[in-house]
Amino acid sequence: MSSETADAKPTDLAKVSSGPAVVIHPRWVRVTHWINVIAMFVMITSGWRIYNASPLFSFTFPPEITIGDALDGLAGALLWHFAAMWLLAVNGVIYVALGLLSGRFRRKLLPIRPSEVIRDVRAALTGKLSHHDLSVYNAVQRLLYAGVIVAGVVIVLSGLSIWKPVQFQELAAVFGGYDGARFVHFFAMATIVGFLLIHVTLAILVPKSLRAMILGR
Ligand code: HEM
Q1: Residues with a CB atom less than 6 Å from ligand 1
Q2: What average pLDDT does this structure show over 196-201?
Q3: Which atom of ligand 1 has the smallest separation from the CA of 109?
Q4: pTM, entire model
Q5: pLDDT band, very low/low/confident/very high, at 131 (cuts 50, 70, 90)
Q6: Distance from residue 75's CA to the centre of ligand 1 (Å)
Q7: Is there a contact between 69 and 75 (Cβ–Cβ < 8 Å)?
């Protein structure tokens, strides 16, 4: 069985053998991906408003790009953040568990070799990176996807440490205590937002990849 069809169901495999409709992203990847988009949007925009109430740095986020209660600036944002937290965490656990158990992460995201990342970054910058076969991730995609999955795990764990620093004190200690966890949480957010700028730009530049993440084929 080839790597791109290993996640597919028998009905999908019939399509593979009879024509061009190769299954690239199985349904569980697509469902968890789009639920994650909604959860991340709410978490990031409400998180910016929470940050504004007690900034770590000398800047704040424009209120227009945040969500939450405009009156007291914090209560509504906290409610949004805690509501989407469950969606993000449960959906994330399902995605990571299935990714590990199905072997998808191993097949699609590994290995990540620095020499191949450098080669593919060069090819991308000179417009020579092929997007012909959507079922195989190039080295840059592997690095970005593996990186954002790790950032997702870190943002949830550091978030738990900030939310319940007493109950999760061993976890908080890993991040250097409550204050350390706040910085880690912020930088994980910045990593995810940086990833998103590249990721959404590439999805727009290669629309057939977007189609595959919606329809699976
Ligand atoms: C509007 C926002 C988004 C769009 C339009 C989008 C689009 C896509 C597309 C088209 C793919 C398949 C790309 C390919 O074949 O290379 C993909 C895969 C992926 N996206 Fe997104 N994405 C969005 C948001 C996000 C967010 C917020 C995250 C995580 C923070 C994320 C993480 C991933 C990951 C990890 C994969 C690889 C999934 C796998 O193969 O298991 N995406 N996305």
Answers
A1: 29, 33, 36-37, 40, 108, 134, 141, 145, 148-149, 152, 192, 196, 199-200, 203, 209-210, 212-213
A2: 97
A3: 40
A4: 0.90
A5: confident
A6: 31
A7: yes
